[in-house]
Structure formats: structure tokens, C-alpha cells
Fold this protein.
Amino acid sequence: MNAETKMKIMQADQKQNGQTFKKLLLKKRIFEIFYKEGSKPIAEICELTSSSIPSVTQIMNEMTAEGWLMNVGIGKSKGGRKPALYDLNPEAGLISSIELSRKYSRLGLFNLHNEQLGDIVEIAEGLDTSESIIQTLKAELDALWKRNNVSKQDMLGLGVTVPGLIDIKTGVSYSYPQFGNKPLSEYFSEHFGLTAVIEHDTKAMAVGEAWFGLARDKSNVLFINIGSGIGLSIIINGQLYHGHSGFCGEFGHIQMDPEGDLCYCGKIGCLENIASGAALVKKSQELIEGGKSSIISNIVAKDTSRIKLKTIIDAANQGDLFAIELLEEAGEYLAKGISILIHLFNPEAIIIGGEMADAGNLITDPVRQKLNKYTMMRLKDDTSLLLSDLKERAGLLGTLPIVVNNVFTVKDGNTLLSC
Ligand SMILES: [Zn+2]
């Protein structure tokens, strides 16, 4: 039974009512437990769902017949007979994932054990640089499926991360008019022929961190994505916070320098204009063209238009003083902003992710040092500053639980229940 057929059974179940609805809720809960925690015996599922052995056994038998679950061996005995262990069949449904950025895009293919199939495909085209980015993505996704001998029928869904402002109520992008007035999920579902779920890029990265990275087992975490821009995700009491309309986290657009340059958002002196990858690239280009000496010139063979944030980080990691000072200065302004966040949110951890995470101590040291200057000691000591270890995979991985949750979202009249 392929993923498409299994989902049709699920949708048919959803149309029924009463007893079936209750059963479906339990099915969703069981699926969720296996997806999140891995293999378990029936007795533990009964405990975790507060359900009887006969009802759990019946549903798990059904899920096994449909191909969602499989027997994966024998577990440890807790006194009596050793129990049979069950787990999700990793191939029961695959997830295609797309990370769309302003200047680049990434594609990945994953199974239900969150294992990556094949390579992460990197495309040097993004929303700001290509008008035909959707066609390019379709072609690359088809090629990725072919290389892995899978097809559309094997997919549970498509997860897409998009930058900019997305209205959480209407699902419409306010930053990219090319998607029209349609909810982004509809736009991508139509273009790719798959059920698509959309999340804002930095928020998806935070979901990735919460499920698979350093935010796992933490409840109050701030995630700062520093790439060409600067974004923030807020996890409060274990839940991703979206704000009134979904626009929260525009950390890059708080004013740091009233005398600063005009930002593309229309305001003056934004943090993003000073400490983002795009800002550091611009500054390094101006200074190097003005005669500043740095190994960056050698790395790009004197063609400053080729400088990227990665170039600056590579140079700094090789001990280049100019690049180290650029990062230090960015760190000072980031620390100013981060100290405001610590005073407001009292987070357990702040995770720095995105491309900037590759700078390691060269970015965290200056931030830490300046946090001493700007932050009340009691609050500062309560927060750990961490570097993401998922790095560029955080966004793609973050779409996986969102797609899985969407497949098993249960509709009962007007009530939408989700994980
Ligand atoms: Zn701005």
C-alpha cells in the first residue's frame, strides 16, 4: 500500500463520526508517540495513551495492516515474557522538503524515521534572484526522487519554508507578491501536486532544533537565525510562538543606529543592516575596495562581488585579522539585541543558527563578552548561549514534524485538533 492509498484510508476515516472519531484520535496519538519516541511495546503505548490493551491492540493491528507500523523485534522483560516491539515503518510515507531563501534554495527527502535519503540538493537560486525558481525546484525534486527510486505516490507531503512576512490567519505571503493572494500552502500544493505545509524559514529551523537539536528537552528557548538576514524564533513553554498575525521575531529590524543606513524594510539603522551576513559582505567589499588588506581578496581572486558570509567566516577561521574584527563588531551589536531579548524573555538557552554558526567562538566570544556589559548578571547567568549543531539542516528537518502533524490532523465539525 503506497503513501497515497494509506492517506485516502485516513481521510475516509475522518469523514465518519462518533466512535470512529475517538478511534482516530487514539490512532493519531499512537502515531505521534512512535514518530517522536521510536520503538515501543504495546503495554507502554497503553500507559502513555491511558487506553486499554484490547483497544490499543486493535488499532495497532489495523495500523500494521495498513503498513504504518511494523514489528521490530523483542524488547526487555519487565518481569514476565519479553514483549514484542513495534515502530513506524520508515518507508510508509516519505516527506519532501524545500527551503526557499532569498538567494538560494535547498531540497531534501526524508523517511518517517527522519532519515535523509540521498543528498541535500543545494541550488544557487532563490526568491530574489530567479523568476523561474518554482520550475527549477520541481525539476530538481523530480530528479531527487528518481535518484532514490521513489515517486510522488510514495510521498506523505511536502514541507516548504519561506522567508518574509506570512500571515498566519490567511497563509498569504506579504513579502513575495509573485505567490498572489492565495495561501502559500494552496500555491505549493497546486504546483507540486502534493499536500504542502508552509512554515516561515526561521520558525521551521526552531522546530528542527526543538525536535532534533539543542532545544530538545528545553521549554523556553530563543533561536536566532543569522544568514544573509537576521531572524528570531521564540519557543515559550515548549510551544512555538507566532504572535498575533504570525509576524513575530523580526529581530533584524530593531533599530541599533539612529544615524545608520536605510534598510530594505524602510526603516533606518536596523540590526540586520549592521550585523547580518549581507551587511558584513557589503562592509568587507567597501573596505577591501578602499585598500584594506585581507586574505579575503586572495580567496575571491580580487573579485569582491564573489564575497559571501562564508568567505568572511573562512578567512576569520584562518586567522585573518580584518575578518575577525568584522565578526567582533557584528558580535557587539548582536549582544546589544540579545541582551534585550534576555531581559524580556529570561530564556533557558539562546541558540545561534544559520550560516553564522560556522564562525563558532569567533562570534560567540564577542557576543558573550558584550553580554556582560549589557545584561543584568542574574539573568545572563541563567541563559546559555549555544551554537546550532544542525546548522544548514535545521530548516529542512523542521518541516518533517509539521508535515506529519498535518497528515494526522483530525477534523471534527469545526474543531481542528492538532499535535
Ligand atoms: Zn530593517
User: Anything to note?
Assistant: The chain has three domains: 3-91, 94-206+395-406, 216-389. The radius of gyration is 24 Å. Confidence is low (pLDDT under 50) at residues 412-419.
